[in-house]
Amino acid sequence: MITSQLKIIEQGLSYLNSVSTEDYTEIVSPNFISSAGSHMRHIIDHYQAIISGLNCELINYDIRERGSKYELSPTLAIEKLHQIADWVKSLTEEKLNKHIMLSTEVSVTNKNIQKVQTSVARELIFSGSHAVHHYAMIAQISFAQKNAQPSSFGLAPATATFLRQESKQANNTAKQ
């Protein structure tokens, strides 16, 4: 799981190293209501919620730094993702299996906060999946800006497995 998380973070770093500040902060309207930087900041917020949650025994994804420096600067987002990667590398089996409370709003019509027990590993899996989902949106923003991203950027692991199997079957069929 650690290796997979690091690969997900590497995808973000690869994007950040390829994007200009102008494209990172641009809102490509009317198709999008937020910038690639907003999506990247949101990804950082989720990982940061787990890191902070370990210290206070409560993960809360609703605490976000909207409009933060990570949203405006690819360079600062790179630095933060490196810090997150270092934190991920430091996780022990004990920390991954630690039971912790999660607090999150669950309603869009009224304030409804629920608390449930979870584990650090489960929330790390969620944050990785969440990052991939936002990478897919960043890929679409990049496409609208005419900036190509690798075809694997924002591709869900299960989709990647499906495509590998499909390719393998096509190759086997072609050989027959």
Give a quick precis of the structure.
This protein is mainly alpha-helical. It has helices spanning 2-18, 21-25, 36-56, 69-72, 74-90, 93-96, 120-144, 157-175; strands spanning 58-60, 99-105, 113-119. It has a single domain, classed as dinb family like domain (Four Helix Bundle (Hemerythrin (Met), subunit A)).
**Gyration radius from CA atoms, angstroms:** 18 Å
Q: Provide the helix percentage.
A: 55-70%
| SSE run | HHHEHHHEEHH
**Largest sheet, order of strands side by side?**
1-2-3
Spans of at least 5 consecutive residues whose pLDDT stays below 50 are: none
Distance between the termini: 37 Å
- Enumerate how many helices there are, as a single number: 8
Taken as a percent bin, the fraction of beta residues is 5-15%
3D shape: globular
Taking all residues together, what is the mean pLDDT? Answer: 93
